[in-house]
Amino acid sequence: MTSNVGPTVRRRRLGQELRRLRQEKGMTAEEVAEELMVSQSKISRLENGRRSISQRDVRDLCRTYKVEDKALVDSLMQMAKESRQQGWWNAFGDVPYSVYIGFETDAASLRVYEPQVMPGLLQTPEYAEAVISGALPEVAPDQIAQRVQVRLRRQERITDPLTPLRLWAVVDEAAMRRVVGNHKIMSDQLEYLVRMSHEPHVTVQALPFGMGSHPGMSGQFTILEFSDESDTSVVYLEGVTSDLYLEKLTDVQSYSMMYEHLRAQALNVDQSRQFITEVAQDHARRHGEG
């Protein structure tokens, strides 16, 4: 049950195993909560991997489910211990989207649609600072700097020489035209986007305004996929005060189909590089005029 993955995915795997044991016992989450004298929401959070799972939790649940396989109990207890280890992002303090970072850190591939901003994994430091400070005008400068550092640390997955993240990004023209910071920052950002698109594990497609309506008009989304078949794909929807993680097979399939339509409507790779370069040159010209 254990492998070289981070605490977020470990919690998820452990939660899935605990759910399986509950279902095999024929108990509802409400019944388990009543027997252990805890809230039903706690049982749900333990099973969906959004909450740290203590060894005591595992022990109590295994007793409730009358698990007699000592090797299985020991394995679950070890998973609980390892799932409470800290990820690299904990060194940066309270990171609001730490659950997502945990998934991203262990993912094998990402499919991203961005309608408003550049993909976080492909942002320059200057663009990242400008977009974060613009989106969070009431956040202190030191917190802005912290978030920028976290974003840059996340980008190391792209350049990892052993297991680089496979990234496919469809970027709307609006994200390229919107002046984040200034025209110089935008020109540099778009040139960087083109350079990164030449990496063998990075694919970037532009979705121009002229393509008209498309399935992604409801907003940004990311599909995370993992190398281990036991780790089902996750759809991530970013929110202002909370994020949404969709793991049901039907939800993942719906978003995967949406993404296929987006890729089909977007410019191909070579056309996208040409298009992005032209927008970058437009920003550079406007910077020169300023």
From TrEMBL:
Pfam families xrefs: DUF5753, HTH_31
The protein's GO terms of the molecular function aspect are: DNA binding
| First and last residue of the signal peptide | none
Where in this chain does the record put each HTH cro/C1-type domain?
Answer: 18-72
What InterPro entries does the database record attribute to this sequence?
Answer: Cro/C1-type_HTH (IPR001387), DUF5753 (IPR043917), Lambda_DNA-bd_dom_sf (IPR010982)
| Highest rank taxon of the organism | Bacteria
* SMART domains recorded: HTH_XRE (SM00530)
Q: What is this protein called?
A: XRE family transcriptional regulator
Starting at the broadest rank, the lineage of the source organism is:
Bacteria, Bacillati, Actinomycetota, Actinomycetes, Kitasatosporales
